[in-house]
Amino acid sequence: MDLLGALGILVRVVETGSFSAVSRERKLSQAAVARQVAQLEDHFGVRLFHRSTRKLSLTDDGQTLLGLARPVLDGVEGMEAALGQQSASPVGLVRVGVTVTASRFLSLSLPSLLADHPQLKVELVVGDRFGDMIEDRLDLAMRVGEITDTSLVLARRTGTAVRVAVAAPSYIERNGEPSSPDDLADHTCIVHDIGPDSDVWTFVMPEGPKGCRVSGGFIANDVRAVHLAARAGYGIAYLTLIEVFDDLRCGSLVRVLTDTPATGLPLSLVYPSRRHLAPRTRLVMDFIWEQLLQIRAELATEADVGALRERRADARSLTQSHTFLPERL
């Protein structure tokens, strides 16, 4: 029996909650996965799982073995990295959890990294809702907001995601634009559902941050759907600068509430604390960091151009009132 391999299967069965998930992940039959677990039970002379048709749970002995197995597996991975077995030419798969917006620019830039490292594979796991990194088998993840999960290591704080309230010119022509965040209550708003209080948009007021509850008939958990609905003129959306700056530049969207900035959100790259950061993962992390720096520089350039455009547009008051001045991500 390959003891280390069997222990790895045990850990993944617990993390995914099923034999079938591990069989798909390892490209093994479900019977082969079950056989590895059975061999562990025979080897140690204990029962590891309570099995039923609906639920799979560890026995006390299974919990003990799991707690002992994880440091062993992490140690083996650490030895491989320390001895340089993967450092000369990164090999293997790196699973990265990213937001829908981030997936757009990474899909354009990642091919250059993969061309330089043909034995490296990168899988983007895309979504705006954040789950458990271990359960989702993520090596690295981009997180928006403060990191409160103590099981995660903050690898890089990559900047700030600035949010802006935007609408299509056609919507403003029909409905006018809000002059203050309180006016949003009288407008149709498009809600990006990423969790509790997604319909509360926060703005920086002289007295401090103020949350405004909005409403509208269109709600979506996909930022692309919210973005498209805004461009179609349905209502006002509350999106990150990086998501909409191309539309603001070409005029298909305009910013509203320009005198009332929205609060920003920290952008971070994190990884599970129990895992050694393998060289291939560090390579991908550094690449993503460089891409974010490049985007931030491009946005800063847009800010300079936008400021000049404002000064030259005195005769175009409507356009001037909607000029977009990005300074952060």
What does this structure look like?
With 329 residues, this protein is an alpha/beta fold. It has helices at 3-16, 19-26, 30-44, 60-82, 100-116, 169-175, 223-231, 241-250, 279-311, 317-321, and strands spanning 49-51, 56-58, 92-98, 120-126, 140-144, 152-167, 189-192, 200-205, 208-213, 219-220, 236-240, 254-255, 264-272. The strands form three sheets. Strands 3, 4, 5, 6, 7, 10, 11, 12 and 13 form a nine-stranded mixed β-sheet that branches. The longest helix is centred in the C-terminal third of the chain and has 33 residues, at 279-311.
The gist of it:
The chain has helices at residues 3-16, 19-26, 30-44, 60-82, 100-116, 169-175, 223-231, 241-250, 279-311, 317-321, and strands at residues 49-51, 56-58, 92-98, 120-126, 140-144, 152-167, 189-192, 200-205, 208-213, 219-220, 236-240, 254-255, 264-272.
